[in-house]
Structure formats: structure tokens, C-alpha cells
């Protein structure tokens, strides 16, 4: 997500350091609820948790931040890297689960280098306000903790500067991030107070409405502030988003559904005519944040009871798909007969990426999607659909096919976001729409490849 | 650019582990692209250095159980942005059933495959005609 | 790989220079302060350029034997390629890891006096 760089007002001759220490014991509930998510990346109003801590360290005047954990930090390191995105120097180190503040300081003595050091200890949310100058707090607070809660604290080490005047230090409140309930309430609080207080992702022409990239909103969809919407989102006709809705990235909200007081996590498809209020939805799981109860949908792909296609529709679909395949086979037969021996000779048939230096034959083969030719007879036999999910996907509810809906829609073909598009169309597309989608896939595929090679 | 292959055969002895992993990291360094950061290029080379050190050790430790050390053959396949490495040896097969070790028990072995799987994009283990083949690839 | 031992009154500083893998792990295990389970050691990793799972296994095994004998290992100045191996395997939480050898020395001295 794009982040506006936080600038340091005035000179920054102080060399305050920040240690951010987070232990697995405080994050275990995140690992249980979202097994594939690193707890430091837990999104709070579409911004990963760790970024709030980094923002606060910068507001307090730190240019050097060290992240400490008794668990793996590799994933975080890959995303945050050296911290240059924020204009800071970010380093990583490991601690033991039982280490206290004294040990943290001792183990990072070279980093702290006798400077004043702020220790953000634990899995907590710091209720900062970006308009306040926390450097005053950082420089003048007495040594020791200045705020604490059940899951962590903010503390200072090293001697403070004497206060120059009687300006009151800005107050700080920290909230434990210890359950789905707290995660929900914190996200809602951030959404309500909005971008005036926190640095938030997305763009909005008006306050209380942040919208990411590649968001398609139907004319009849209604947005009720405040909302935060991520990237690659489709809001279909008749949907009502908000008030108080956080929609993650790669999300589709289907016709007539309403989302309020709820968080929809990344890579989620919300089916038709659903009313989601006061919930967290993630993939196929719907969670009540107050009780912590969660329901996993039986159909792994749909958060609704969309009826599967009847048998007669299946037969019709198969027939139409077979017809389309037959036409494609006839159309592709001549170029295949000409190009196949040529490419085979060069060893370029089917394998290897299409490169910039591709020969004419190769480019032509890619443009005509000849690589899919060997799959077409399977459609005639009813083993594959002409369009559906990517050929290799075999998860339940998918329709393996020669072309995928994601290719037709020009969405990224890999990753779970493609699966979202495929699920959506698998439910909605009529056999006749499928023909149109197949043609779109034929047109879009070579375009995508070229874009990929040029990137 | 077509893909090109490089094949190297080393004696299956412990003292050649370092040579094997250095050959891998140097081959991976050929991929250095200016548009990637120094850290990303370094990580790519280190991934191959680590993965080969693990796979070679695995092949050689098993070889010790046999009468004479069997040679280990490493094939690199270079594509535009992808490096694939296949290591072949004719020793006893890999044991793939061992679960990842739990650090709480202070295990001294069993981290090898976990490390390879973590640093590589794809890893496959196969056995063909009494030959173990571990194939791994990574895209920069 | 070369190993240098500097023995103090309470503990020994072991400096490892080079690579710790299956070919060098036996030498590491046989180094006197490492082989003595009751001896607490600070292992300076500043000049260690590469570690793999065989080297890691040796470190974990030595740590276990030392802890059983009421001693321990403190690691200092870990480089990124070395830290990565600890991180992926989750063994980072078993060791005391310092960014400075002097700090590890001070910690070892107080830690041992405290018992």
C-alpha cells in the first residue's frame, strides 16, 4: 500500500532509538484465528499493525528502529526491508520469551549506544495522534514506563533532557491487542477517528472515505461513510457499504449485499443478498467479534447459500463449451500445423517464458494462445470446461478449464485473488456469457504476457 | 534468451560441501539484476548457497553408510529470471516423512529440508532408477 | 574455519571465523571450551560468514549439554545470513543473542555471579 513518507519537522539532532519487542505468547490468538497471517501484519483498518508502531517511533523522533521477537521475523523483513520506505533504518534481532526490558537493552547495547531509547514492548495498540509532537515526550519523560496495559508497555531508558518549559506532555493510551474483539474495536475506532489522527492508506476525496487502487463501484452501489476500502475490490449493483465498513483487498461484494460495522479481510467473496453487520469475514469464515464464535462455511468459497447449477444447466454448459472448443480447434489447427514443427525445432514449445527476444513464430503462438491447444480436446470429452478456474486448480468448487476467468478479467493469474474472480464467475456466468469471457481471455492473455515481460 | 545448462560432478565427500555451495551461490550471482536491491540479490545467492549445503550434506551423510562414496551431480538450468538446480546422487533415498523439528526439544538434526523449502520457491524430491533427485528453483 | 578461545575467570570467549557446516562441525565440537559442558561460553559470530543446519545442530546440541550442566551459550554479533538460519528454524528463542561481544561478556559475568 502506498505510504506518504512521514517527515521530521525541524532538526533532529537527538539520536533516539526505538526497540519494538513482540513475543509469540501475546500473538498466539492471531495465529489461531488467521493461521496464514504473521501477527505483525494483522490489518487494522487496512494498515498492517507493525506500521502503526513504526509510525509512532518516527513521531517520537526515532530514525533507528530495531524489531525484536522470539519468533520468526523473516516475513516482516521481506516486507519492511531496511525501512527506507519510511526514511528510517530498520534492523531485526531475536530475543528469548522470558526477556524483560533490562535484557532487551543489554542484548542490544551496541544499537542503543548509550542514547535515549524507547521500548515498545508487547502486542498493544498505541492510540497516537499524528498531529502531536511526541519528541517532547520522548526527550523529557522520566526513565521507566510511561504507559502500560495487560499485554505490554511503553518505556524509556537513558537520562531525559530537562524540560525547557511547562508544556504538558501529550497523553498516551495503549490498548491490549489480545483478542478478535479488541482487534475489531480498535479497527472501528481507527475508522471513526480517521486519517486526521493516523496515517492511513488509500485515497479519499472527502474525509471518512478511503479507497484503494482498482476499485470498481457499480452505479447503484451505495457508500455510507465512514468506510475504508482496499485494492482490487468490486462492489456490485445494489450493495450498501457502510457505515463503519472496512473492506480489505481482493474482495468482491455481490449484488444487494450490505456491510456495516464489519471488517472484510483480504481475499474474501461475499455472496448475494447478505446482510453483514458487526462481523469479521475472512475467506470462508464469518466471525462474531464479541463472542469470538466463528462459522466456517461448508462451501469453501462462498459466504452465502448460492445454489449450485442444476443438472440441465450443466448439460447445456457442457454442450456449449464443447461447441466453442470445436470452433477453436478448427481456428487454431492451421497456425498449429505451421508453427508447431518450427517451435519444436527451437525447443520453445510450451515451456519457458516468452521473452523480449522471442522470435516471430513464438510471438505469434503466444498471441494466438496456441499453448492451450493440446487442452482443447479434453473439452470435447467433457473433462475440462472452456473457461473456469486455472487448469491446474483442483480445489473443491472450482471448474478446471482451458482458460480462466481471471485471465479474461485481466486479473493477476496467480495467488488467491485470482481465485476470488474465478469463484465469482463460476457462480454467475451463464453458458453464453462464458463464450464472451473466452473471447476476452483470448484477447487479454497475450497482452498480459507482454506487460509481464516489459515490467 | 534460451535456457542453458551447467553440469558439475563432485566426489561425495564432506570436504566438498563448501565447494558445492560456493559454486551454487556464484552461479546464482550471475542473475544479479540492476533493478533489484543489493539485499535481494544477496538473498538470492544465499538461498542457493544454503540449499546446496543442505542437499549435498544430506547426500554425503547417507553415502558414508555405503562402501565407497558416490559422486554427486549438480545441474543448473538458467532461464531469464529463474534458476533451477537438480542434484543427483545414487545413495539411499531421502527421508521425507520426518516432520519439522520442534525447537523446544533442542533437536540437533532435521532442519535441512525445512531450510531448503523455506528459501526456495519450489522443491521436489524424486527417485528414478536408484538415483535420488532433488530439484529446486527460485525466481529473482 | 578457525576457532580461537580466550579463557577468563568465569567464562570463555570463542571466536569462530569462517563457515560452520557438516565439514567443520566436528572441529567445533572438539574445541576445549565447547566440549566442556560446565563451561559457559560467549561465541563471537562476527566473522562467521555461513551457517547451515549441520552447524546449527552442533550449536543446539552443545547448548543442551551445557544447560544440563548449569552452563550456557551466549551468542554475539550475528550476521544476517547466520540469523536467517536461526530465524527459520525457530531456534533463535533458545539462545541469548547479543549485538555486542562486550555486552555478552558483561552479561555472562553477572549471570554466573548471580547463581
TrEMBL record, chain B:
Keywords: Kinase, Serine/threonine-protein kinase, Transferase. InterPro entries: Anti-sigma-factor_SerPK, HATPase_C_sf, HATPase_dom. Pfam families: HATPase_c_2. One of its GO terms (molecular function) is protein serine/threonine kinase activity. Residues 43-138 form the Histidine kinase/HSP90-like ATPase domain. It comes from the Bacteria. This is Histidine kinase/HSP90-like ATPase domain-containing protein.
TrEMBL record, chain C:
Residues 13-108 form the STAS domain. PROSITE patterns: STAS. It comes from the Bacteria. GO terms for molecular function: anti-sigma factor antagonist activity. Belongs to the anti-sigma-factor antagonist family. This is Anti-sigma factor antagonist. It comes from Chlorobium limicola.
Amino acid at each position: 500500500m502506498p505510504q506518504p513518507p512521514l517527515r521530521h519537522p525541524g532538526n533532529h539532532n537527538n539520536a533516539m532509538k526505538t526497540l519494538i519487542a513482540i513475543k509469540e505468547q501475546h500473538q498466539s490468538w492471531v495465529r489461531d484465528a488467521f493461521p496464514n497471517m504473521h501477527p505483525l501484519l494483522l490489518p487494522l483498518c487496512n494498515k498492517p499493525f507493525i506500521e502503526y508502531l513504526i509510525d509512532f517511533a518516527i513521531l517520537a523522533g526515532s530514525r533507528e528502529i530495531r524489531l525484536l521477537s522470539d519468533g520468526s521475523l523473516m516475513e516482516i523483513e521481506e516486507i519492511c526491508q531496511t525501512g527506507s520506505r519510511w526514511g528510517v533504518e530498520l534492523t531485526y534481532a531475536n530475543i528469548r520469551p522470558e526477556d524483560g526490558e533490562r535484557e532487551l537493552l543489554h542484548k542490544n547495547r551496541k544499537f542503543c549506544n548509550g542514547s535515549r531509547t524507547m521500548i515498545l514492548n508487547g502486542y498493544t495498540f498505541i492510540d497516537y495522534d499524528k498531529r502531536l509532537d511526541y519528541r517532547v515526550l520522548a526527550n523529557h519523560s522520566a526513565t521507566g514506563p510511561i504507559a502500560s496495559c495487560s499485554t505490554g508497555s511503553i518505556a524509556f531508558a537513558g537520562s531525559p533532557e530537562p524540560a525547557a518549559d511547562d508544556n504538558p506532555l501529550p497523553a498516551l493510551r495503549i490498548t491490549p491487542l489480545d483478542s478478535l474483539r479488541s482487534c475489531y474495536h480498535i479497527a472501528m475506532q481507527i475508522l471513526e477517528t480517521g486519517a486526521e489522527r493516523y496515517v492511513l492508506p488509500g485515497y479519499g476525496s472527502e474525509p471518512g472515505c478511503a479507497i484503494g487502487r482498482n476499485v470498481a463501484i457499480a452505479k447503484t452501489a451505495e457508500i455510507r461513510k465512514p468506510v475504508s476500502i482496499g485494492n482490487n475490490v468490486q462492489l456490485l449493483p445494489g450493495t450498501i457499504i457502510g457505515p463503519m465498513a472496512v473492506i480489505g483487498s481482493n474482495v468482491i461484494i455481490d449484488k444487494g449485499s450490505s456491510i456495516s460495522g464489519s471488517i472484510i479481510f483480504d481475499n474474501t467473496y461475499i455472496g448475494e443478498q447478505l446482510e453483514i453487520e458487526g462481523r469479521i469475514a475472512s475467506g470462508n469464515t464469518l466471525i462474531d467479534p464479541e463472542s469470538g464464535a466463528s462459522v466456517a462455511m461448508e462451501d469453501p468459497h462462498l459466504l452465502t447459500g448460492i445454489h449450485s447449477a442444476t443438472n440441465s444447466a450443466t448439460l447445456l454448459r457442457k454442450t456449449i463449451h464443447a461447441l466453442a472448443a470445436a470452433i477453436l480447434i478448427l481456428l487454431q489447427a492451421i497456425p498449429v500445423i505451421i508453427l508447431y514443427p518450427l517451435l519444436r525445432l527451437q525447443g520453445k514449445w510450451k515451456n519457458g517464458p516468452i521473452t523480449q527476444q522471442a522470435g516471430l513464430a513464438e510471438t505469434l503462438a503466444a498471441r494466438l494462445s496456441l499453448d492451450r491447444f493440446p487442452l482443447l480436446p479434453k473439452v470435447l470429452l467433457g473433462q475440462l470446461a472452456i473457461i473456469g478456474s486455472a487448469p491446474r486448480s483442483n480445489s473443491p468448487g472450482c471448474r478446471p478449464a482451458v482458460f480462466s476467468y481471471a485471465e479474461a478479467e485481466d486479473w493477476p493469474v496467480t495467488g488467491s485473488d485470482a481465485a476470488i474472480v474465478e469463484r465469482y464467475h463460476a457462480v454467475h456466468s451463464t453458458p453464453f456469457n462464458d463464450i464472451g469471457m473466452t473471447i476476452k481471455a483470448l484477447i487479454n492473455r497475450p497482452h498480459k504476457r507482454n506487460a509481464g515481460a516489459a515490467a | 534468451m534460451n535456457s542453458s545448462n551447467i553440469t558439475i560432478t563432485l566426489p561425495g565427500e564432506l570436504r566438498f560441501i563448501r565447494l558445492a555451495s560456493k559454486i551454487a551461490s556464484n552461479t546464482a550471482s550471475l542473475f544479479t539484476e540492476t533493478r533489484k536491491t543489493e539485499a535481494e540479490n544477496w538473498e538470492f545467492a544465499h538461498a542457493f548457497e544454503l540449499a546446496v549445503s543442505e542437499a549435498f550434506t544430506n547426500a554425503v551423510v547417507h553415502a558414508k553408510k555405503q562402501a565407497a562414496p558416490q559422486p554427486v551431480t549438480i545441474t543448473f538450468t538458467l532461464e531469464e529470471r529463474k534458476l533451477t538446480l537438480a542434484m543427483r546422487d545414487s545413495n539411499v533415498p531421502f527421508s521425507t516423512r520426518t516432520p519439522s523439528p520442534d525447537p523446544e526439544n533442542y533437536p540437533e538434526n532435521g532442519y535441512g529440508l525445512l531450510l531448503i523449502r523455506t528459501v526456495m520457491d519450489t522443491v521436489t524430491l524424486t527417485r528414478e532408477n536408484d538415483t535420488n533427485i532433488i530439484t529446486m528453483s527460485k525466481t529473482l | 574455519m578457525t576457532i580461537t578461545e580466550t579463557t577468563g575467570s568465569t567464562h570463555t570467549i570463542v571466536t569462530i571465523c569462517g563457515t560452520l557446516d557438516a565439514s567443520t562441525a566436528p572441529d567445533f565440537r572438539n574445541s576445549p571450551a565447547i566440549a566442556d559442558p560446565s563451561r559457559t561460553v560467549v561465541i563471537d559470530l562476527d566473522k562467521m560468514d555461513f551457517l547451515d543446519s549441520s552447524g546449527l545442530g552442533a550449536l543446539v546440541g552443545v547448548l543442551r549439554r551445557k544447560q544440563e550442566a548449569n552452563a550456557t551459550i551466549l551468542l554475539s554479533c550475528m550476521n544476517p545470513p547466520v540469523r536467517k538460519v536461526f530465524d527459520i528454524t525457530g531456534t533463535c528463542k533458545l539462545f541469548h543473542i547479543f549485538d555486542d561481544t562486550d555486552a555478552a561478556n558483561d552479561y555472562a559475568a553477572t549471570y554466573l555471579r548471580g547463581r
